[in-house]
Structures are given as C-alpha cells and as structure tokens.
Request: fold
Amino acid sequence: QVQLVESGGGLVQPGGSLRLSCAASGFTLDDYAIGWFRQAPGKEREGVSCIYWGDGSTYYADSVKGRFTISTDNAKNTVYLQMNSLKPEDTAVYYCAADRDLGVVAGITPGVPYWGQGTQVTVSS
Reply:
C-alpha cells in the first residue's frame, strides 16, 4: 500500500525558511519520481518541484527556482523540500506526490499521482 506522509508546514514570516518532509513507503522508490504540488485558495493545484529517485533528475517550477531545493534521504525513504526566501504568494497547502513519470509529478504531463494528505504553509507577517 502506497503511503506518503508529509510534515513540516507552518507559519513563517516573509523571507523566512521552512523544510517539508515526505516519508514514502509501499513501493519501489527507484522506479518513481516524488515531489510536491501546492494549491492556494481559489487556484488550481500546481507542480512545485520533484525528483526522480533512480537518477536524481529534478524539476523546479520557475516561481521557486533559486529559492527551493529538493533532496532525498535514501536511508529514511524521505524527500525534503527546503524552502528559503519565502514569499506570501508561496502560501498554500503543499501535497507530496509520487508517480513513475516525473512529468506527472511536475504537473506538466497528464496523470493522477499518488497523493499525501497535505500540509499547510502560510507566509505572513
């Protein structure tokens, strides 16, 4: 059974940092891309960043390049999203996602990935 369990959301001031974690289980990680979508109130869900576990290929949305970094801990089967220089427009529910196709997890290829339960990130002064 595929499970994606997120943690690390919260409230942070503009310019601050947060690190999200996604612990994955129930599937062979080497065959999957894992990453993050986000959905702000009144907006569609968008792909933020993802990594293909097998070869380390990564994707970042233009809106987060240079500020967010995705990484993995193979021993813990966990993906991290380090978010720096946060802006109010980064406020959203962040969802961990997994699929064999990196494009699906990046949100640029049609498909329905496995989803985590979501974690709220609020950037506000």
User: Anything to note?
Assistant: Helices lie at 102-106.
